[in-house]
Amino acid sequence: xxxxxxxxxxxxxxxxxxxxxxxxxxxxxxxxxxxxxxxxxxxxxxxxxxxxxxxxxxxxxxxxxxxxxxxxxxxxxxxxxxxxxxxxxxxxxxxxxxxxxxxxxxxxxxxxxxxxxxxxxxxxxxxxxxxxxxxxxxxxxxxxxxxxxxxxxxxxxxxxxxxxxxxxxxxxxxxxxxxxxxxxxxxxxxxxxxxxxxxxxxxxxxxxxxxxxxxxxxxxxxxxxxxxxxxxxxxxxxxxxxxxxxxxxxxxxxx
Amino acid sequence: xxxxxxxxxxxxxxxxxxxxxxxxxxxxxxxxxxxxxxxxxxxxxxxxxxxxxxxxxxxxxxxxxxxxxxxxxxxxxxxxxxxxxxxxxxxxxxxxxxxxxxxxxxxxxxxxxxxxxxxxxxxxxxxxxxxxxxxxxxxxxxxxxxxxxxxxxxxxxxxxxxxxxxxxxxxxxxxxxxxxxxxxxxxxxxxxxxxxxxxxxxxxxxxxxxxxxxxxxxxxxxxxxxxxxxxxxxxxxxxxxxxxxxxxxxxxxxxxxxxxxxxxxxxxxxxxxxxxxxxxxxxxxxxxxxxxxxxxxxxxxxxxxxxxxxxxxxxxxxxxxxxxxxxxxxx
Lengths: 255, 331
Prior knowledge:
The complex is a heterodimer of chains A (255) and B (331). Chain A is mainly alpha-helical and 255 residues long. Helix content of chain A is 83%, strand content 0%. Chain A has one domain (2-254). Chain A contains eleven helices and no strands. In chain A, helix 6 (108-140) runs antiparallel to helix 11 (227-254) and helix 7 (145-170) crosses helix 8. Chain A is globular, with a radius of gyration of 20 Å. Chain B is an alpha/beta fold. A six-stranded mixed sheet of chain B has the order 6-7-8-3-9-10, sandwiched between helices. Chain B has a four-stranded antiparallel sheet with strand order 2-1-4-5. At the A-B interface, helix 1, helix 5 and helix 11 of A face helix 2 and helix 3 of B.
């Protein structure tokens, strides 16, 4: 376990020693900030309008701002996560430092878990940028904090899945650009899968719909903490990390 | 300490290492010699558990690389051909990270970082970014990382590649200094390096073991024997080369005679003397007294290079030089 922590700390440090961490955080803060701004303005306008018409304002901050915002954040992370995950193993392979890791007395799985955890921490920091905006709502309004927490948990789990896939793909190539691009396409495919399968009811499509990571987000963004979805995410993460370990193993045998 | 038996490593299309066996005793420095692509790096990667062998076994300190890789890895310090440095880290930070990977912590770790920095003369770049270091310093930090956990076995893949002559000397001294406490295998294709640092040489070519011998034995060959090229012609042109050969072999002190080539001017023979014998005078007299013309007589130095080329050259099997391959040591 200490080994996992050693690797994790090193990863996190590498992120912040390069522009990646700052770039991803800034990009996310910018996009989220813009959307936050327009969503809040819309909300305020709506409030004014309904007041002028004499009705009482439908003032539910959770329903009108936080939920769509965090849903949108989930979509944005689809694009940002590959930027985080692409270097994880590909860079080590390119620089030859993988030889150091694989000849050190650590299990392969500890290396992979440590790397994924390091990426998770950066992802947490990225999500943290949005919390600044949400904090404004808490300062001036009275949103319910519990669904917000659950939504963030959902974002974290969904990001964890995407990062685990990204780690797997990063282990397959020594080219970061390819790792990033492929991770992006797989994320996109998993995201779009739900569009086509939503209204169908054949078994195959229901399975596909279940595998798509996005529908599992719905309950979380509504503030419903469902064990079924949590289990799905956690097992998805472990499956992907397990496959990464197998991939590293097969690399040794084939290379 | 290290025992390799019948080790092979096959890649998809080619065989990098083909049934090699050797042993390394505790505390020895062994030079792993071979041209580029001979399979040196592959063998080292198998020993460090980076690659699994296709067949055969390799054990380090009694632990099999396939069955107990973690135990093997604990006991090995490895410097790959390119030092595995994280260029965005600082020297001390990097060494601390590697130390943690190898299982060190706390005061012991801090102490080891200082020790290896001093030992590898990298103390003055402790707080510099690895990316900003010169090639020589990177190599030193690479070496420092290999010895951070004070491993029993050190495996160094071309530790002096790409360094300038001064740095090469420093690195050699450093490696020699490490010899007492560690068993060291270093690979190289530079011969003097082996002569200066190693006690034993393992020569491989195209994945096959060509020779294992002590450096002293190889050098004795190189110093002691004389290699003479003799061109002989009959008084009126052609000469019976079998007869000449027979005559030359009879000269006192001659160890080996080989027919080299037939030229219009005469036949060339390669004559190797026995150890510490000088045979040029007697050769000349023998040729002339037999009634032949002596067209040319010159010595060729037998150097380690010569032996190496003989052993690893393409025609190794075809040329007579291969017959005289160094006696195989079983130790």
